[in-house]
TrEMBL record, chains A, B:
PANTHER family: BETA-UREIDOPROPIONASE, NITRILASE C965.09-RELATED. PROSITE patterns: CN_HYDROLASE. Belongs to the carbon-nitrogen hydrolase superfamily. BUP family. The keyword Hydrolase applies. It comes from Pleuronectes platessa (European plaice). The lineage of its organism: Eukaryota, Metazoa, Chordata, Craniata, Vertebrata. The keyword Hydrolase applies. It holds the Pfam family CN_hydrolase. One of its GO terms (biological process) is beta-alanine biosynthetic process via 3-ureidopropionate. This is Beta-ureidopropionase. Pathway: Amino-acid biosynthesis; beta-alanine biosynthesis. GO terms for molecular function: beta-ureidopropionase activity. Residues 72-328 form the CN hydrolase domain.
Amino acid sequence: MSACEFESLEECLRSHLPAAELSEVSRILYGRETTKLELPACAVDAASERDFELKGYGFEAALEQLRPARRIRVGLIQHRIVLPTDAPILDQINAMHSRVGEMVEVAAMCGVNIICFQETWTMPFAFCTREKEPWTEFAESAEEGNTTRFCQELAKKYNMVVISPILEREELHNTIWNTAVVISNSGTVLGKSRKHHIPRIGDFNESTYYMEGDTGHTVFQTQFGKIAVNICYGRHHPLNWFMYSMNGAEIIFNPSATVGALSEPMWPIEATLSSESFKSEFTSGDGKKAHHDFGHFYGSSYVAAPDGSRCPGLSRTRDGLLVVEMDLNLNRQISDKWSFKMTGRYAEYAEELTKAVRHDFKPNIVKE
Amino acid sequence: MSACEFESLEECLRSHLPAAELSEVSRILYGRETTKLELPACAVDAASERDFELKGYGFEAALEQLRPARRIRVGLIQHRIVLPTDAPILDQINAMHSRVGEMVEVAAMCGVNIICFQETWTMPFAFCTREKEPWTEFAESAEEGNTTRFCQELAKKYNMVVISPILEREELHNTIWNTAVVISNSGTVLGKSRKHHIPRIGDFNESTYYMEGDTGHTVFQTQFGKIAVNICYGRHHPLNWFMYSMNGAEIIFNPSATVGALSEPMWPIEATLSSESFKSEFTSGDGKKAHHDFGHFYGSSYVAAPDGSRCPGLSRTRDGLLVVEMDLNLNRQISDKWSFKMTGRYAEYAEELTKAVRHDFKPNIVKE
């Protein structure tokens, strides 16, 4: 069996383990069980007709006496490219708009409040080719590009916050960035979050195309909660998740494009550790080899709760929409339970880290 | 099936999954495959006679041209208590010395260079009882206590670095600490590392007994490598792993005592994320309910490599010794491959964190 044929970890476990063992394995791998979400028949039918996977899960929180529940629904979309990578650029972009548009329509049927697309979703993830052309031509203005206008229409039409990660061209300086545009459900561009850490590994030296983001750890206050976007490789840097959380993020999205041989063993777990926020990880699903054969993009989008529990992932090989209902009250409940922020000794870490980055830093090493 | 009967995740997967699927599942859950270590027959026989599990794995590193391989063997011991918790204290301690002593002898047969015992290994993990007596009577001097002397003898006899996590009494101030004593293979006490983060969760408010450690992120330079000890709950704080690594640790040990309902879903993964050091997590194995029925201590000791791959865990229910061979050159190789420290933007995080802990901190939140 090749990695490209393997449907998903969850599917494999479900079809081979006896019920009692499956329950223990799921508890250890995924924590507290998520509930299955009942999705409307029209959505299920549309997903089937349009040939993409549709899954729904819910994270429960306790009812509180003084705060009403803050139940919202988040949608994550993973998809392969639509046209071949040598088709005219505008055709490629339009085909992707059209594909994602029909998936967002289904998300709307499912009552999704915030939707997030995959990393640089309007184009093939070509950043390991080292070719500047034609890839840089896919770059658009974050504020006024066609793709942003397209997302603003979706946002208004469906009353949905849209996170649209694109290749951004900043016209003024002719700089290119890997940027998530955050669009309010009113259709207003709330702002943008640029990829904070840039990989230099294997085929992926993306600094050929764009450099480390300069937008810091911005959090966006939306009608449905405070959200942040930690793009791709930033998920390997625990401090990155942490600083979004310190700035008040209730949900941190992690749109990623990455391949199996490189990062798949880290994928199922990186969003599950302790930052006391909900975290959504997802990558593009692509059963076929990419155009320059740089490996299998493994889909597997999932959502993790602040207690480290997580829902099953989408398929490793198919387009898909994951709908997750969460009660944002869970963040504070887990915070009260585990007290990570209170036991974190952050003032001391601030001092230690400040010393550790100086050239005259003396590591604390004891010798005999 | 109850959580106490479930032997281990790895055993369950191995016995139910077809070979091709098992290989994919293992790749996703554990990363690059570890090799099985050939252990001497005398050690295998002794472990069997003495009724504990013995497993050995190896992490491979590439051969380099300019540095010789730095292959060493690490041993982790997990065990239940020996005598009932109401037996005379000295008898309990001596029985534990004797049990661990016979396990260390087997570790020596296996060529172990550095051995680590479990958290407060000489006593029942009673810190959820809130009773001061008789538990505080188990506390000993880190420098001159019986247990340290016992470990110094082991260290000299077997030419082994011994990490001995105990309940420490500092005579001068009559303060109690949760402390790992690090003893050189020469028998010298190199120093100590006190538990840096103290839980206040569920039954475990350990600050009833001891407070946050004051030894910072000390790293110990031994003949076999630079090591650090991150005790128990500190594993939930990514900054804690990180600062040991920033101080040069090549292996970070995480002796832990924790129960299934609380933390088991986090356990298999916490040591696997990106600090570019080897990390060893382990807890006490105890198939029986603890004396006040506060849950199942789930063993499951394992070692993770700096690339996030990890070896299978020991049993959830049996005493055990895990022997892991590692080439410490892998740390720098993975560092060169992934460049986490170079792409980490730590100077900026030092500034951000310094601001974030101030009372006048204004989080970076964008509103419509």
